Amino acid sequence: KRVGILISGRGSNMVSLAQAAQAPDFPAEIALVLSNVPGAGGLERAREFGIATATVDHRAFNKDREAFERAMDEVLRVNQIEFVVLAGFMRIMTSWFVRRWEGRMINIHPSLLPLFKGTHTHRQALEAGMTEHGCSVHFVVPELDAGPVIAQAKVPVLPGDDEESLATRVLAQEHTLYPRALAEVASGRVALVDGVIARR
Ligand code: GRF
Predict the structure, then answer these.
(1) Per-residue pLDDT tens for 110-140?
(2) Which of 30, 164, 186, 198 is the most exposed place for a label (fewest CB within 10 A)?
(3) Which residue out of 12, 16, 43 has the highest number of ligand 1 atoms within 8 Å of its CB and is therefore the one to mutate?
(4) Do the bridges between strand 83-86 and strand 52-55 make them parallel or antiparallel, or are there none, so unpaired?
């Protein structure tokens, strides 16, 4: 499967996926890294792997979200992308894009969904007094952070944790969880069928 990874920043999850995809038996090829932010750090990291990169600057579409998404979609089509992976992609997608890619687009969210949707998830977990936290890989559906969950990884919340220490612990889990989850979906072992997770 030709996979396109969408990023907005440093791309640490993209790097983990690119490393995993170098294994000869990995069921997906990272064929493109696309950023909505020109000069995002992850673009240089992708080039180091020899992965094609592209930038579609959302600011160039003066708030017309769908026009921005159509431009991204054209780049994905030109690169014959079959599956989209959101990795630190910080734009909310409209249902136009999500419907086109439903069942072929996944995201990683730094919480144990359905807990703590949205942003500042580590702060939310600390403020809620959680003793455990983690990350979730899910299919993307029009409702934000609400898609069926493919896989999760848990970490303890330790006394003295602050947002940074907790985020660091969660991110380390993301880097092992995401490649495993992508392999499950790209191999067809896991799929989204009629809105629910189907496992073979
Ligand atoms: C991280 O907070 C991660 O939890 C979330 O997006 C942010 C940046 O990730 N997925 P990355 O380093 O750009 O992959």
Answers:
(1) 999 999 999 999 999 999 999 999 999 999 9
(2) 164
(3) 12
(4) unpaired
Q: Residue 128 corresponds to which amino acid? A: A
Tell me, what's the ipTM?
Answer: 0.95
Give me ligand 1 centre to Cα 88, in Å: 4
Contacts of 108 (CB under 8 A, 6+ apart): 13, 86, 87, 135, 136, 137, 174, 177, 178, 181
Buried b (16+ CB within 10 A) or exposed e, 187-200: eeebbbeeeebeee
Binding pocket residue ranges, ligand 1, CB within 6 Å: 7, 9-14, 87-88, 108, 110, 171, 174
**What tokens were used for 73?**
């979609």
Is 91 assigned a ligand-binding role in the annotation?
no
Q: Name every residue whose Cβ is closer than 8 Å to that of residue 177 and which is 6 or more positions away in sequence.
A: 108, 135, 137, 151, 152, 153
Q: Which of 1, 68, 95, 75 is nearest to 33 (CA)?
A: 75
CA-based nearest residue to 191, from 113, 139, 114, 135: 139
109: annotated active-site residue: yes
